[in-house]
Amino acid sequence: MARELLISAGPGEWRAALLEEGVPVELYVERGERSEAGSIHLGRVARLLPALGAALVDIGGDRPAFLPHSEVLPRGKRLHEGERAVVQIRREAQAGKAARVTMAATLRGRLVELIVGRPGLKGGEALSPDERNQLLSWLKTLTHPSPSGAGSPLSRNAAEGAERSEADEGTAGLRLLEAAPSDAIADQAAALARRWHDILDRASRLDPPARLDPVASFAATLAGTLPGVPDEILVDDPAAIAELRAAFPDSAVAHLTEIEWPIDLDAVFDEGLCGTLALPGGGSVHFAATRAGTLIDVDTGTPETGSPERTGLKANLAAAATIARQIRLRNLGGGIVVDFVGLDSRSAREKLRAAFAEALARDPAAPQLLGWTRLGHFELVRPRRGRPLAEALLEPRSGGALVKTAVTVSHEALRALRRAARAQPGRRWRLTVAPEVAAALAGVAGGAVRQAEQRFARSIAIDPDPGYERERFQISAL
Questions:
Q1: Are 332 and 288 in contact (CB under 8 A)?
Q2: DSSP-assigned letter for residue 445
Q3: Each residue's pLDDT tens digit, 267-280
């Protein structure tokens, strides 16, 4: 399957779309303000929660991360408050919930994943018995220092590190991602093992909290977030090419202006944030996020011909394809309840379920279909890893309606300003915005403003206007 990543590298914000066979399937926003799923951190145990079977680990940020006892290595180890720990984020902080972390870190390559502390070989069914036995034998020789505890590389005392004992070692496992010769798999696994040792060595020289891997950058964050390695990356700013090539060594990276792209990125983002989408052939789908899960409602509209059962099935089949794509595009996770148009026929419901399952099968997150409820709704669960797109860009207004945050509007205005500056280079610019957006441009987005000024080699005048609504802004040349 051909994968293409399109990146709009604006000042202080990168927006990206992953295309599969030319169709946008995932959207990303990176501003450098979050700890993404897959990143590895050196933390300190801040508090034990025996009633929840977990511990809180300070990895920096607004709140400590949640570490279940089942994710502690070695198994059965008792943590202590103040103890250092290397953890990997499994699920990002979202919707007011803390990030969930594990000590069983997973390092991903193109062919294989190395899983620390989880011995075994997964996904090797396509290997011959000899290749499988060769990899299993090699795995037995591959050991890794446990990510915490006396005598581990986390110790600041060199003598303790030299006295590491066999009991302080932890094995690793492999998960095969693509069919390949066993020697190629072993070579990549060995490289991942060296990377893990480098991470632990770095942790031994730092004080918590500290980010260990990958090095914080927009490109590295994207690389850790994507479900796989894209074949080609197109970026609208040539200055970002070097950073992207370092983060994506196996991808072809090239500069291409946004106007030459095969998609309208703004339109795709608008689609991914819209609460209601029209269906081909009539009808609509409505999306509503709650603290407990996501609710999706299908509406047939007002067709003038056809039987109710046939009309409902037609709308539901169109909705199933749209919903499956939007779940992935919006990065919806957790419990999802779909209220399809009511179908009386059991065969029609089974036909709809099969079509929905087929549409969801292409999602690498592997949503689990739970089936029909007694109320006639369809339930599924999709693993939560990253924050939903709407959570990154929107916030609820009093009354419940979602609107763009002041920071989102700030970056939107800077993108528009960048386009204007490219069309008329050498000009000075004034940006008139709502007061709350002006405050964001002077505060959280202040670094983005400075980056824009450096690129334009001109200062930007920012004028707050109390008469402007939040999403309104105006660009004028001086």
A1: no
A2: T
A3: 999 999 999 999 98
